[in-house]
TrEMBL record:
<protein>
    <submittedName>
        <fullName>Levodione reductase</fullName>
        <ecNumber>1.1.1.-</ecNumber>
    </submittedName>
</protein>
<dbReference type="InterPro" id="IPR002347">
    <property type="entry name" value="SDR_fam"/>
</dbReference>
<dbReference type="Pfam" id="PF13561">
    <property type="entry name" value="adh_short_C2"/>
</dbReference>
<dbReference type="GO" id="GO:0016491">
    <property type="term" value="F:oxidoreductase activity"/>
</dbReference>
<dbReference type="InterPro" id="IPR057326">
    <property type="entry name" value="KR_dom"/>
</dbReference>
<dbReference type="InterPro" id="IPR036291">
    <property type="entry name" value="NAD(P)-bd_dom_sf"/>
</dbReference>
<keyword id="KW-0560">Oxidoreductase</keyword>
<feature type="domain" description="Ketoreductase">
    <location>
        <begin position="7"/>
        <end position="175"/>
    </location>
</feature>
<dbReference type="InterPro" id="IPR020904">
    <property type="entry name" value="Sc_DH/Rdtase_CS"/>
</dbReference>
<comment type="similarity">
    <text>Belongs to the short-chain dehydrogenases/reductases (SDR) family.</text>
</comment>
Length: 249
């Protein structure tokens, strides 16, 4: 018997990095996995890695119609959603508040914060019907400090922590738990093709130099697996740094 036998896990941003590691880890633990990503090829690659127990769905978490279709596909295929990992996220340009463009602000908030809200909002009715559910949000060290990223990313991850606490509090008596992990720097594709604002990057350079504390995506997946499992049955509203001690300093 595996910890997640008969469970269904929906992971957003499952086509790469931390989300891919989560999809693989939940499947290894017995779950059927809905691997959702805005990039179809990446979602399909992850589903192929997982094998029979995975369904790849192309979905943009920042788009309400796309999210509705994602949740419909998950329920259509498996009939339930026990675990939701709101993991899809994008970097900002490291721009400071005076320099960030409204377009970058809007895009980052839409994917990192509104995206998590839209998926949670669409999945909650199913979890409430089931009387059971665990949500794990991928926030960031930038969710608890002001100097770990640019203004938009920082605000989006602080907001995601607020959403985590709101959901945890609201549904504590309904069998639904909601927690967040705060990854430190992790070896993924998130910075591929990124262009950084020079002034912001200069101020944030101590953070960018944190390479020696670089984690592997599987270390984030392990933490998410714990928070979604029965071993964490009374852990609700927890904001969990998974950063090798960076936030302890
Ligand atoms: P990644 O770029 O390797 O993977 C992110 C995936 O999300 C990609 O496959 C991308 O296609 C997908 N995605 C982007 N926008 C999407 C959208 N609108 N809808 C659906 N999917 C979308 O990056 P990662 O590092 O694995 O990032 C995962 C999460 O971890 C993010 O929320 C990120 O903010 C967070 N995080 C990462 C680090 C790090 O150092 N890598 C640190 C702290 C937090």
């Amino acid at each position: 018997m595996n910890a997640f036998d008969d469970r269904v896990a929906l992971v957003t941003g499952a086509g790469s990095g931390i989300g891919r590691a989560m999809a693989v880890a939940f499947a290894k633990a017995g779950a059927r996995v809905v691997a959702a990503d805005v990039d179809r090829a990446r979602a399909e690659e992850t589903a192929a890695l997982v094998g029979e127990a995975a369904l790849a769905v192309t979905a943009d978490v920042g788009d309400q119609a796309s999210v509705a279709a994602l949740v419909e596909a998950a329920i259509g295929a498996y009939g339930r959603i026990d675990v939701l990992c709101n993991n899809a996220g994008i970097l900002d340009t490291m721009a400071l508040p005076a320099d960030i463009s409204p377009e970058v602000w809007e895009r980052v908030i839409r994917v990192n914060l509104t995206g998590a809200f839209l998926v949670t909002h669409a999945v909650l009715p199913h979890m409430l019907r089931q009387g059971r559910g665990a949500i794990v949000n991928t926030a960031s060290e930038a969710g608890i400090r002001g100097g770990a990223a640019g203004a938009a990313y920082t605000a989006s991850k602080h907001g995601l922590i607020g959403l985590t606490r709101s959901v945890a509090w609201a549904y504590a008596k309904d069998g639904i738990r909601c927690n967040a992990i705060l990854p430190g720097p992790t070896a993924t594709n998130i910075a591929d093709g990124a262009t950084f604002d020079p002034a912001g990057a200069a101020r944030l350079s101590p953070v960018l130099a944190l390479g020696e504390l670089m984690a592997q995506p599987e270390q984030m997946a392990d933490a998410a697996l714990y928070l979604a499992s029965e071993a964490a049955s009374f852990v609700n509203g927890a904001i969990v740094p998974v950063d090798g001690g960076w936030s302890a300093g």
